[in-house]
Amino acid sequence: MKKVVLYTMNGCSACASAQQYFDKQRIKYRLCNVKSPAGAKEFARLRMRGVPVIKVSDQLLYGFSVKKFEQLYRD
């Protein structure tokens, strides 16, 4: 399976929805809090502005959409 990283921060409802979906589907992912020093540095390299951002292998998905995520993850 492809490597998945979820960039998130506390209080983000869309981020929580993505986490719940991944957990329910048993999709392995790494959680990266963009408010932590290491997370902020990693997130800055992506040049994105808001969360959630989902990285599937080398592709980025801004926001959370089951349909769009499935297209990236299953292909």
List strands and helices in order, with pairings:
Blueprint lengths: L3 E5 L4 H13 L4 E4 L3 H10 L6 E4 L2 E4 L3 H9 L1
Parallel strand pairs: 1-2
Antiparallel strand pairs: 1-3, 3-4
Q: In short, what is this structure?
A:
With 75 residues, the chain is an alpha+beta fold.
Task: List its salient traits.
75 residues, four-stranded mixed sheet, 3 helices, 4 strands, 43% helix
Strand content: 15-25%
Q: Structural class of the secondary elements? A: alpha+beta
Distance between the termini: 10 Å
Biggest sheet, strands in spatial order?
Answer: 2-1-3-4
Q: List the uncertain runs.
A: none
Provide the number of structural domains.
Answer: 1
Number of helices: 3
| Rg, Å, rounded | 11 Å
pLDDT averaged over residues: 95
Describe this structure in words.
The chain has 75 residues and is α+β, with helices and mostly antiparallel strands. The chain has one domain (4-74): Glutaredoxin (3-Layer(aba) Sandwich), CATH 3.40.30.10. It is built from 3 helices and 4 strands, in the order βαβαββα. The protein has helices at 13-25, 37-46, 66-74, and strands at 4-8, 30-33, 53-56, 59-62. The protein has a 4-stranded mixed sheet, sandwiched between helices. The protein starts with a strand and ends with a helix.
